[in-house]
Amino acid sequence: MTSATTDPWIDPDQALLQGRWRKWIGGAGNHDLAALEDLAGLTTLAGAHCLDVAFHPAAVAAVRRGIRWALGQGAQRPPWLMVSLNDGEDPHFRKASFDPDRCPTACPRPCARVCPARAIGAHGGILDDRCYGCGRCPAACPLGLIVEAPIELDAEAVVEGLRQLRPDAVEIHTRQGRTDAFARRLEQLARAGVPLRRLAVSCAESPPQTGDGNVPFGPYLWSLFALVRAGGWRPLWQLDGRPMSGDLGVGTARAAVDLLRRWRGHLPPGPIQLAGGTNAATLPLLAREGLNRPPAAGGVAGVAYGSSARTLLVPWLEQAEARGRRLLDCRDLWPAALDQLGSLWRAR
Ligand code: SF4
Ligand code: SF4
Question: 126 is in which domain, residue-wise?
Fold first, then answer.
């Protein structure tokens, strides 16, 4: 068996307890089915404990195909399948678009250069399935032609979708001051009646505000904790340092670790995972801060990787795409890609 994992194949719940949890974030707005299948296969074989993907039937089906491939290659357990929801406006739930007919023919296309998802082709507009809303291309267009639109999920779609997808876990992306909207999502989860191994809550720290949003980060999570426990779910807290930025450089890793340092000791019970800017620098940074310990000893449960994992694998994804094949079907390519992924997982 080829594997990049250095840990025994421990159960996801055990991984949370032992501080060895690794989650792969496919992206709440990422519907690039070919890449999702490849990445799900390789991250499963690399030992991921959870794959967090868009609330989208085709995306979930692609990820399940990737998991089946990994089990066929010797992965010793499937990871949890988590789907992401939001309770209001959120940068993870948006898509960018522009009309290429309005672009000057001489434009050097800086929008395409900044896109980490290869969503902007040589001459056309944005490939909707690939865009995961990272927000970089609108700022890159000197003519301001790129607009962003939210991905909306109404209550009935959430209830029916959960019954259809039957995930192992759900993550709700929230923001300080949204207790009522969060509670409405919980009502929909309860109506769906799908048993969940964990209910994850993802939140970045907002700058001080006026009005409803003016509740500090820690107390806000405590208010959500009361709702989550009242509904009988087990929480998992995702501290979102700098959303969707892990591929930008090692410096982004500091945001999530700083958020942890500011609020450690003031957060509600439950395991903590770091996300948002996480990359190969995250685990070494945790080790330097003395935080690479099991949660019971004051450390974190683990780390979630999104754009940093995808960016690592882009060279192999492109080679497979040029052949018109899944990366998972290219036996001469995927072992090296798996090894790269393992370097992210193993960095300590
Ligand atoms: S740069 Fe980001 S927002 Fe723009 S198309 Fe690419 S993924 Fe979408
Ligand atoms: S940068 Fe703006 S004008 Fe240039 S190709 Fe992109 S969207 Fe069009």
Answer: 94-149
Of how many residues is the chain composed? Answer: 348
Q: Other C-beta atoms within 10 Å of 78: how many?
A: 17
Instruction: Give yes or no: residues 240 and 259 share one domain.
Output: yes
278-299 residue pLDDT tens:
988 999 999 998 888 899 988 8
3-state SS, 123-139, equals CCCECCCCCCCCCHHHH
In a domain, 6, yes or no: no
pTM over 0.90: yes
Residues 88, 156: one domain?
yes
| Residue 319 within a domain | yes
- Whether residues 29 and 80 share a domain: the answer is yes
Ligand nearest to the CA of 124: 2
Residue 176, phi-psi category: left (phi > 0), alpha (psi -120 to 50), beta (remainder): beta
Sign of CA dihedral 250, 95, 172, 166: negative
Tokens 């949204």 -> residue: 178
Report which ligand 2 atom has the smallest distance to the Cα of 120.
Answer: 6
Find the residues whose C-beta lies inside 6 A of ligand 1.
96, 114-115, 117, 119-120, 126, 131-137
Q: What are phi and psi of 262, to 5 degrees?
A: -65, -35
Do 213 and 333 lie in a common domain?
A: yes
> What are the tens digits of pLDDT across the range 204-252?
998 877 666 579 999 999 999 999 999 999 999 999 988 777 777 888 8
Which ligand neighbours the alpha carbon of 114 most closely? Answer: 1
* CATH classification of the domain holding 257: 3.20.20.70
